[in-house]
Amino acid sequence: MAVLGGGLIGLVTAWCAARRGLRTTVVDPAPGGGAAQVAAGMLAAVTELHYGEETLLALNLASAERYPSFIAELEEASGRDTGYRACGTLTVAFDSDDRAQLRDLHALHLRLGLDSQWLTGRECRRLEPMLAPSVRGGLRADGDHQVDPRRLSAALLRACERAGVAFRRATAVRLRAGGGRAAGVALDDGTELAAGQTVLALGSWSGQLAGVPADAVPPVRPVKGQVLRLRMPEPGRGPAGPFLSRTVRAVVRGHPVYLVPRDSGELVIGATSEELGWDTTVTAGGVYELLRDAHELVPGVTELPLAESTAGLRPASPDNAPLLGPTSLPGLHLATGHFRNGVLLAPVTGDALGELLATGELPERARPFTPERLRAPEDRQERQERQERQERQEQPV
Asked: What does the DSSP 8-state code read for residue 237?
């Protein structure tokens, strides 16, 4: 089988498939790259919740629950540390309007039975003394943790190599088909790779591969995000205690911002959300907005050295949920469209695609996220009738 795309989702799919005994090849010119090199790595099933995404919430919670065992398995298989931290998350409000919005989110958490605790501004500052005095309140979610996506990606790459996954360092340019099913892929180096099953895991580029039938093309678009990386003071050189002890998210005058402190001393600040097509330019405006909002929240942040500024593309689907499982073309499967939750959903995506590829059956929890959900009812009926006609034609006389 072939996995097209060597980003986080492609690598976890390949690793899980190889662990099930499948002969697996990853096609990517630079495996281990992609959005994971930009992402902050928040595992925020609770604090990332948006209205109308209750179905996605169930998948996010399942993956968050799977994370500790997934990390243990991956670190053992790869011999690499992933930067996983069970540190919890604090989401705070900067002014009265932000506080009202956060109160509404807390009410939604309570209705859905989620674990989040309302704190006053003083209680927030007791947890994180570097917060500004103007913080008006917040939500404490002790189950929302973090991982370092760059380390996670490197660990998955090593685990794949140790599991016998092959790598073709080339770009997939066209899907090959034959006998009414996917048969592999043509590469930009002029060669072809035959495969009985093919997984399309090209992130934001998943809808750009030539040769995919129109009704199987994933409706994925790129959403730009700019991210900053700063260096926090070394222990003993800054204020008493850590600069920040946990992930801090905020709404600052209506603008979302997050600060993710790593054990390595790195502080990740992000992220903008821009519908600008394929542009990945780091802009002065984007850097300014992130630093402005982070400074309002944690004034000391502007005293830290700026180590890196980057921009990447999130693969977004029409309903912001992933596209997992078989397409209308037999042998072609999707693992894309994860949008904000690619790092969080890596474990359940790998488990789901691994089971599908090995057994032909998609696990129950992943079935609400098949590409079929985005098809119009009349399209689904037409496809069903076409399949029935094909089955009748193939029956022996």
From this structure: T
